[in-house]
């Protein structure tokens, strides 16, 4: 059969091969140069070989120089309006604000979130070990600042339960919560978190957190929610319990202090908690009652305060005196503790990226506008930095309040400004009323909020879908519960990265077979009907090839060479593998270690009379292989665009090898002809491509069964 290559102008006839026989007699003939009698040519799509001096697309776009040039070009194109929008994202919605359409909706949403935030802020401050006033401060200045510098139009910023627990956990190990130093360190922590968020936003480092799996976050938040709920039990039980982020000390403390149990706070807290849960459920399940979800915390405070004012129970602890007025400007102090607070600041920053930026992106998608995660991170950082100068502790975006804000129809940051005004009014005029709020009511607000963080549905889903992710969820959950928040997160992240490294070092590799009646090659395990060819192994590598996984890839290739499944094989029957075809379409990157290993593999194959072929490498991979000399070593004629092209060429050589083995009855080493001589001897004896591919070598295939103008497909007889 004649093999017509459209890949290059280097096609030669047998005469030209014979002329070069003295120098290449021990090598395989070129894939584009063998001719055999047939009724039609074999079509081979050209593979474009980039020049060795051509720059790779990755280096021009992803490298350091390329990245700098891209940024430089972008900066040159930016107008003054683009600069304003970059530093003041609020200008985007201010310019297009529809006053008649948006104002009323934003006012209602801001009022709803504000009513929800006032009692929550005091509750979360108590969870953080601070006086309730600092929760109100944290819900005041940061809200205004974020409305200006934040890019999300629906994200509700302020104190949250998880960050409050982190603050309590780390500061409780440094100083007693009753000490003034405790408050100063909480404010300093807000400044540190803000600076870290600003730096990460400006340097566009938010991508680092992508390595933390969602399973880790879900397991961590579920365990944290349980710890938060148990830490609030002291306000229900009426006696103090140890401050800890581990479940065992909390349970021991609860059991050991049972003699101090008091019924009044337990009954009041339980009733208020039941009211909150019912209102929350009705607000979620009934659209016309969704206002109940936001009104729940306020209802809890009103019910508790009213009961205390009427009956004056002595056994129920109250919030007590709260300073009246707005926070004053002050510079954070106690910078000597910065070093010990860095791990917690990093952890809180990570929570901000994973939770706040995540929910901000989701809300942006639902409301039809784009959001830059790094710019969002910068906005959160500025809000924390400014808040630290007005006595706020670390803040971030809230799941529950953001959901309420979105459900209330908030269109722009005006809703955030309205929320800030509500907080300001509460600080100016309502703090005398807060004196009689029962602490068990604030605890009920916290517990009702964190119940939604117990993500058991995610655990059930992971068990059904991916046992590995379920294992990761379980490890993080258990480690956080029993070893503490910081250690739990570190273990979860470490195991997550270990899984990533393991998957990268042990990539998926598939043996491909041809789907009947097509020229498509797919994984044999996924498509059992796909068939392979005798003497040919087609392998697809589904990952970048680099130093960490090249040894695994080589080992698997050796296994595939030995493990031959003859039940679904077609074509000329030979006793071993003569060709290995690497399908490299999924390979996005090849490093120098992998190139050297591939060279070693080629020499190893050559010593066993096996030819290596490459199919469909992308431009950057092919350029790397060309620069390293691997393409020249293998031969450009053994690099193909499609797997099918490689199979057609290899099939012809397999047929030649089979016919040669029949006609040479074990000649002596001195008389053994070269492969080139065997090819010349078999000139005119080759089978047609449909016969080779189908495996029906002893039967003729009529012209009605094959169209000479089409690609060679499987014959109807097969």
From TrEMBL:
InterPro entries: S04_transporter_CS (IPR018045), SLC26A/SulP_dom (IPR011547), SLC26A/SulP_fam (IPR001902), STAS_dom (IPR002645), STAS_dom_sf (IPR036513). Gene3D superfamilies: STAS domain. The chain crosses the membrane at residues 102-121, 133-149, 156-175, 181-203, 215-241, 261-279, 291-311, 341-364, 376-393, 413-429, 436-454, 470-501. Residues 690-718 are annotated as: Disordered. One of its GO terms (cellular component) is membrane. CDD domains: STAS_SulP_like_sulfate_transporter (cd07042). Residues 526-650 form the STAS domain. The keyword Membrane applies. Keywords: Membrane, Sulfate transport, Symport, Transmembrane, Transmembrane helix, Transport. Residues 696-707 have a biased composition (Polar residues). It is a multi-pass membrane protein. It is found in: Membrane. It comes from the Eukaryota. One of its GO terms (molecular function) is symporter activity. Its main location: membrane. PANTHER family: SULFATE TRANSPORTER. This is Sulfate transporter 4.1, chloroplastic-like isoform X4. The lineage of its organism: Eukaryota, Viridiplantae, Streptophyta, Embryophyta, Tracheophyta. The gene is LOC116196185.
């Amino acid at each position: 059969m004649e093999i017509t290559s459209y890949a290059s102008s280097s096609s030669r006839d047998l005469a030209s091969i014979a002329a070069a026989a003295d120098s290449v007699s021990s090598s395989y003939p070129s894939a584009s140069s063998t001719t055999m009698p047939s009724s039609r040519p074999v079509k081979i799509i050209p593979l474009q070989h980039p020049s060795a001096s051509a720059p790779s697309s990755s280096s021009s776009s992803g490298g350091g120089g390329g990245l700098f040039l891209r940024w430089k070009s972008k900066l040159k194109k930016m107008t003054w309006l683009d600069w304003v929008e970059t530093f003041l994202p609020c200008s985007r919605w201010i310019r297009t604000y529809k006053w008649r359409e948006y104002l009323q909706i934003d006012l209602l949403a801001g009022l709803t979130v504000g009513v929800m935030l006032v009692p929550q802020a005091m509750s979360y401050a108590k969870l953080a070990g601070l006086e309730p006033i600092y929760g109100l401060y944290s819900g005041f200045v940061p809200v205004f600042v974020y409305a200006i510098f934040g890019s999300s139009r629906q994200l509700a910023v302020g104190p949250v339960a998880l960050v409050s627990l982190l603050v309590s956990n780390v500061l409780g190990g440094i100083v007693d919560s009753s000490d003034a130093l405790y408050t100063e360190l909480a404010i300093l922590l807000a400044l540190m978190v803000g600076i870290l968020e600003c730096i990460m936003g400006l340097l566009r480092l938010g991508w680092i957190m992508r390595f933390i799996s969602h399973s880790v976050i879900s397991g961590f938040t579920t365990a944290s929610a349980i710890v938060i709920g148990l830490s609030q039990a002291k306000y229900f039980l009426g006696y103090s319990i140890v401050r800890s982020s581990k479940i065992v000390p909390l349970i021991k403390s609860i059991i050991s202090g049972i003699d101090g149990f008091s019924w009044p706070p337990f009954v009041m807290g339980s009733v208020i908690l039941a009211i909150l849960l019912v209102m929350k459920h009705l607000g979620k399940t009934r659209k016309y009652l969704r206002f109940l979800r936001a009104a729940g915390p306020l209802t809890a405070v009103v019910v508790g305060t009213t009961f205390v004012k009427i009956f004056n129970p002595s056994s129920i602890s109250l919030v007590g005196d709260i300073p009246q007025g707005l926070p004053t400007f002050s510079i954070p102090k106690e910078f000597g503790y910065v070093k010990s607070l860095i791990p917690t600041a990093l952890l809180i920053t990570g929570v901000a990226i994973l939770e706040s930026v995540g929910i901000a992106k989701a809300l942006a998608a639902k409301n039809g506008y784009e959001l830059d995660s790094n710019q969002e991170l910068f906005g959160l950082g500025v809000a924390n930095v400014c808040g630290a100068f007005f006595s706020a502790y670390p803040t971030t975006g809230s799941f529950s309040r953001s959901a309420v804000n979105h459900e209330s129809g908030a269109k722009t940051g005006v809703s955030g400004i309205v929320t800030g005004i509500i907080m300001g009014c509460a600080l100016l005029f309502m703090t005398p009323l807060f004196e009689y709020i029962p602490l068990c009511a604030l605890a009920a607000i916290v517990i009702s909020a964190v119940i939604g963080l117990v993500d058991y549905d995610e655990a059930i889903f992971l068990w059904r879908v991916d046992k590995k992710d379920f294992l990761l969820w379980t490890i993080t959950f258990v480690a956080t519960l029993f070893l503490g928040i910081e250690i739990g997160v570190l273990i979860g992240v470490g195991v997550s990265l270990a899984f990533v490294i393991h998957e990268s070092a042990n990539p998926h590799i598939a043996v491909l077979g041809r789907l009947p009646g097509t020229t498509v090659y797919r994984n044999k395990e996924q498509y059992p009907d796909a068939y392979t060819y005798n003497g040919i192994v087609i392998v697809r590598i589904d990952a970048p090839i680099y130093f960490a996984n090249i040894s695994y890839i080589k080992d698997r290739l050796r296994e595939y060479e030995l493990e031959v499944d003859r039940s679904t094989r077609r074509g000329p029957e030979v006793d071993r593998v003569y060709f290995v075809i690497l399908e490299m379409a999924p390979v996005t990157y090849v490093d120098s270690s992998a190139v050297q290993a591939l060279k070693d593999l080629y020499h190893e194959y050559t010593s066993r009379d096996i030819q290596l072929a490459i199919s469909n490498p992308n431009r950057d991979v092919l350029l790397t292989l060309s620069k390293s000399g691997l393409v020249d070593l293998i031969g450009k004629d053994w690099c193909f665009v499609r797997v099918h092209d490689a199979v057609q060429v290899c099939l012809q050589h397999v047929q030649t090898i089979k016919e040669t083995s029949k006609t040479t009855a074990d000649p002596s080493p001195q008389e053994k002809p070269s492969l080139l001589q065997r090819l010349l001897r078999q000139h005119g004896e080759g089978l047609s491509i449909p016969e080779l591919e189908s495996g029906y070598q002893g039967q003729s295939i009529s012209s009605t069964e094959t169209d000479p103008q089409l690609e060679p497909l499987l014959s109807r007889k097969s």
